[in-house]
């Protein structure tokens, strides 16, 4: 080792990543200065370092007086995350003392680098799986909790409860530690700490090993969320021991050659020892291997000239099939099947609309970038239109192998997969691999170890996006059309990122001569902007108005539909609807009920229409509060639909309501007495038209997967 090279590093692998472990030697003083010196040498010897994780112990700062209480306990994990523009760390003793305001943080605390982006992404992915996140980082630690917020970092070991509370309250901290501020501006790092005390006089070293282990478990979960960069199969890693040389007792050994140097691999030890099978260079001291040249280390870690131990560059078929199977989720197309089909002769005007034809025309692709965005107010029928467009495009692709059509319909009240971009990407890839199995080779952009990480931990959003990009680029001179409905039912930040992803995907597809067409639909808010594209506002379209008019003529019950009174009533309904299809559906139910009551029909229907509010939300309120009839059934119906842990079958809702109203109503169920049509009418009556039963169009019979569809979507 050269003068000034004061540290020996442990090298190995974790979750497919090549890793280096560096620690402050026993006896050396702790603090930001020692941490900075260590970080500088890490950066010197390993210039290709992606990011670091600062893992260890800290003092936890609970605050039970705040709302909500911040309950931090021994063994919990503290994760330093950025707040606004801050670094997720507060160097609380780095600043200036002034006469007017006393101590001030240097540059208001904005002196440290922001937490590494990859680390923040991985933490966000772990957080997405809450409340089952404890299972991610260790099956043995079921009671672990973790907090995400800025940490305090300084040179002092805190044993003063009063001073601790002052720092906690002034900077809104969750923990105090002594090293992070020294590393943040030297290497990209994420801070993960286990709570071993509370920063007061009651220090207890017995908690330190446990707290450190908890932090290490969470750190491993972070690594597991990230796809390794340029890694080799696991046996390519090397071990670096603080003793400086390999023990000669590490037999038996197997030999292999890398870059002309002979390597030896220690065979797998027993599980009790916790050791792993790793290759080592036994020809020279390990300290020389690390310190003589960073190029030597890169040769060992990054060499891809030949496979080791029979491992190749391509993903094994069973692993590939396994990660493809993980794309599927149980409700992958349930939303699509539950959307009511367009009424006869409605929506088809859109197929001949010039903007729609232009979007399909590849020659005009430079003008719109392949994007069509259909926007409309709640209840205008966007999803019904999107379903028709998807099914029409899909039917036209039959017999033409050069065309592929995919779809995804977001559902805000659905499962995590149904309302997230992760579910979107999984669904699109699943459909793509089903339609064109040869595209599975696009998975080979991953390394074998990267694929195993996906197999072990599931798909990560970034991995899905990269796989989708490679799959689309592999289509060649083919046409791919994607329909994505209800972007407003997904988180706005996710949607913004997704739109950017698809804009980049269109650019890549264009360079690969792939004809990519993407159609979005959403409400007008939240606002998401695309650089180029065609935008259509549904309620402003004459064809949409004609659809509503046609629907009213078919559905409105009138004694003489051709009379002047009937025409006047129809025009009044159309005018008052403001282009909201759902408003018309609900109002026609009310008017038809008036028609069924008998004498003076047209006049009573006209008077009833005058009482109906023009806004959809006001109409919902009126429906729920207009009378006391069947109020108990209405309450039970809505409670069961809204609060059930899973979507109910129509039969389940029927009996739940009946038993809720009359507990003596028990006995055997006779299908002839209570068939599906009876249940449909019952659900519509109990919900006052706010829910209905829909049937999967691909099945039939009473036991087919008929499901409940809540009409209410805009409270």
Automatic annotation (TrEMBL):
Domain Nephrocystin 3-like N-terminal: 346-523
PANTHER family (alphabetical): AMELOGENIN (PTHR10039), NACHT DOMAIN-CONTAINING PROTEIN (PTHR10039:SF5)
Matches recorded under Gene3D superfamilies: Nucleoside phosphorylase domain (3.40.50.1580), P-loop containing nucleotide triphosphate hydrolases (3.40.50.300)
Phylogenetic placement of the source organism: Eukaryota, Fungi, Dikarya, Ascomycota, Pezizomycotina
GO biological process terms held by the UniProt record: nucleoside metabolic process
Name of the molecule in the record: NACHT domain-containing protein
UniProt entry keywords in alphabetical sequence: Repeat
Organism: Hirsutella rhossiliensis
Domain of life: Eukaryota
TM ranges: none
One Gene Ontology term of the molecular function aspect: catalytic activity
Stretches for region Disordered: 235-281
